[in-house]
Amino acid sequence: MKSINFEYLRKHSDWLPLADLAGFAESYVHGDPVAAVVKLRSFGEVLVGWIYDELTLPKPFRATFNDLLVNHAFQAVVPRVVLAKLHSIRKEGNRAAHGESIDQPTSRWLLRESFDLGCWLYLSYRGGQKGELPAFSEPAHNATQGFSASEKRAYLEKIASQESQMQKILEELAAARAKAQAAEATATELQARQVAAEAGNKAADTLSFDEATTRRLLIDAMISEAGWSIAPNKGNTAQVVREKKIEYKTSASDIGYADYTLFGDDELPLAVVEAKKTAVDAEAGRTQAKLYSDGLRHR
């Protein structure tokens, strides 16, 4: 399935399934966001599976997508910002696969995240240059606009045929991986993993990923998944308020702004969530959240 943004992946035959899956997602992103996100989840799974195969990483038996992402061997070779993008695709893809509603902004956000992942893969594992990559373009709202009835029918028949071929390719990939035998990594393989980790970090830096947006949207999704009513586009609701001003005590009185404050039905604060970039120790976020929580408790 030809795409607007992912054709650079076709330069390498073992990435054809990635290019096809992304192409399908692109064609669905406006008209059927659920189908688009399901395809992008498959894109993420295939990408992760390819890295495991390329570096002969050890993995749990019949591991889920999440198991593969949290595996120490995988986390050792992939930058945290890339892991965050993959987790975003996994979480929203699970929601889509289980019949939950997915809106257009979410499918468009994940399409862009998948584009970033493909660019990162290209730079990390094929020695590509940033200048060889296309700029991301938003897909057209209606791919069949201006088509006659017969042209639309032919287009849909072509999509259905390509979908069937894509499914067959994915099944063959899964079968091939199932036959692979676990083996102890050789010194050469261990060295290859180290090289891949260094290349992956360099690629993420070169692409200047917008980690803050990925982090914010992933946390938004997690808060929503936990049952809280959260507004899109940095808005507030009665349950979730962003950047709430809080007075708290250290050696002197201070004022801060909590990233997320969660409120109960009685309009009293129940929890504070602090988001920190991956370069910052998580303990710093916990300490700051505790100071804010204490400030709310004693207000």
Outline the secondary-structure elements.
Elements: H1 16-28, H2 33-55, H3 65-70, H4 72-75, H5 80-97, H6 104-125, H7 149-179, H8 187-207, H9 211-225, E1 240-249, E2 253-263, E3 269-273, H10 282-297
Antiparallel strand pairs: 1-2, 2-3
Keywords:
299 residues, 2 domains, 3 strands
> Could you tell me the mean pLDDT?
83
Gyration radius, rounded: 22 Å
Name the overall outline. globular
User: What is the CA-CA span between the terminal residues?
Assistant: 58 Å
Would you kindly provide a written description of the structure presented here, covering whatever features stand out?
The protein has 299 residues and is mainly alpha-helical. The chain folds into 2 domains: 7-225, no CATH class; 240-297, no CATH class. Helix content is 57%, strand content 9%. It is built from 10 helices and 3 strands; from the N terminus they run αααααααααβββα. It has helices spanning 16-28, 33-55, 65-70, 72-75, 80-97, 104-125, 149-179, 187-207, 211-225, 282-297; strands spanning 240-249, 253-263, 269-273. It has a 3-stranded antiparallel β-sheet. A hairpin with a 5-residue loop joins β2 (253-263) and β3 (269-273). α5 (80-97) runs parallel beside α9 (211-225). It is globular and about 60 Å long. It starts with 15 loop residues before the first helix and ends with a helix.
Quick recap:
The protein has about 300 residues and is mainly α. It contains 10 helices and 3 strands; from the N terminus they run αααααααααβββα. The radius of gyration is 22 Å and the shape is globular.
